[in-house]
Design a protein that fits this description.
Blueprint (H helix, E strand, L loop, with lengths): L14 E2 L2 H14 L4 E5 L7 H4 L6 E6 L2 H10 L7 E3 L7 H4 L4 E6 L5 H10 L6 E7 H7 L10 H9 E9 L4 E2 L6 E8 L16 H13 L5 H4 L23 H13 L2
Parallel strand pairs: 2-3, 2-5, 3-4, 5-6
Antiparallel strand pairs: 1-8, 6-9, 7-9
Helix pairs in contact: 5-7, 8-10
C-alpha cells in the first residue's frame, strides 16, 4: 500500500520523508501544546502521525481528503480507528473535532495553506495553538513586519491574535516530490485576552470592525487610508489617526487604534 501512495499535484501534496525533521516538528509541537484534543491536517503516509499517536496525553484525530492515504492510515495506525475524518479541512466544523478547544498540527497542503489560517481565524476561540509547515515565502508573509512588501491582511490578522514564531527552515530535499521552494515550520500561540477592556476579547476594539478595516485597507493597498477606507469613514474627520499612511505601514496595534477611533464616531 505504501508504494501505491503517490503525491497528488492537484491536492498540493509534498510528503515529508525526513524522519528527523518529522520528530523535531512533533517535539516542538508538544513543547507548548495546551490542548488535550489535537487535529492533524493532511497526515498522508503518517510521517508526523507515527510520533503523535504514542502520546497518551492527547486525543488525536486526523483529517485527510486523499482516500488512498485514508486506507493506508487505517491499515497502519489501528489506534486511529474512528478518529479519521475523511474530507476537506476547509469545510470542517470545530465540533467534528472536539467539544472543547483543540490544537492543530500538519504539513499543510501548500495550495491551501493560507486558507487554512483564515479558517483558524474564523474559529480562533476554539483553536489556541497551531504548528504547521508552509512554503517559505508564505511563512515570510505571515510573519512580515509593517513596512514590508509582503505584509498584508494575513500578516495583520494572525499577528493580532497569535504570537507567531518560525521554528525551522526545511530544505526541498526533505520532501517527495521536492517542492520548488524551501519550507518553514511556524508555531502560532493564541495571545492572552486583554481583560482590561472588560471583555474576554483578544483586542480592545470591535473585532468584526477590525477585520473589516484591515481587509478594506489592504484591498487598495496603494492608496492612503484616507482614500482606501472611504466606504467606512468620513475621511475628513481629524480624530481618526493614520489616514495619510498606507495600510502596509500600520502594525496590528495601530489598526486596533484606528478601529477604536472609527467606532467612536459611529
Amino acid at each position: 500500500m505504501k508504494d501505491a501512495i503517490k503525491p497528488k499535484k492537484y491536492l498540493g501534496q509534498h510528503f515529508l520523508n525526513d524522519e528527523n525533521i518529522a520528530k523535531e516538528i512533533v517535539d516542538s509541537f508538544f513543547a507548548k501544546n495546551p490542548c488535550k484534543d489535537v487535529l492533524e491536517v493532511g497526515p498522508g503516509m503518517g510521517v508526523l502521525t507515527k510520533y503523535l499517536t504514542p502520546n497518551s496525553h492527547i486525543n488525536l484525530k486526523v483529517i485527510e481528503i486523499d482516500n488512498v492515504a485514508v486506507e493506508y492510515l487505517i491499515s497502519n495506525y489501528p489506534s486511529l480507528k474512528d478518529k479519521i475524518i475523511y474530507g476537506d479541512v476547509l469545510s470542517i466544523k470545530p465540533d467534528e473535532v472536539s467539544n472543547d478547544s483543540f490544537a492543530i498540527i500538519g504539513n499543510f497542503p501548500y495550495n491551501i495553506s493560507s486558507q487554512i489560517l483564515f479558517k483558524v481565524l474564523e474559529h480562533k476561540d476554539r483553536i489556541p495553538y497551531v504548528v504547521g509547515m508552509f512554503q517559505k515565502e508564505v511563512g515570510e508573509r505571515i510573519a512580515a513586519p509593517p513596512g514590508s512588501k509582503t505584509y498584508g491582511i494575513l500578516s495583520v490578522l494572525m499577528q493580532a491574535y497569535y504570537d507567531v514564531e518560525s521554528l525551522m527552515i526545511v530544505e526541498k530535499e526533505a520532501f517527495n516530490p521536492p517542492p520548488q521552494v524551501r519550507s518553514v515550520v511556524i508555531r502560532f500561540i493564541k495571545r492572552v485576552p486583554d481583560y482590561k477592556s472588560g471583555t474576554a476579547s483578544i483586542l480592545t476594539c470591535n473585532e468584526t470592525l477590525f477585520t473589516k478595516v484591515v481587509k478594506t485597507a489592504f484591498n487598495q493597498r496603494r492608496k492612503t487610508l484616507r482614500n482606501a477606507l472611504k466606504s467606512i469613514i468620513n475621511s475628513s474627520d481629524p480624530k481618526i489617526p493614520y489616514l495619510d499612511l498606507r495600510a502596509e505601514r500600520l502594525s496590528w496595534q495601530q489598526f486596533e487604534e484606528l478601529t477604536n477611533a472609527i467606532e467612536a464616531l459611529h
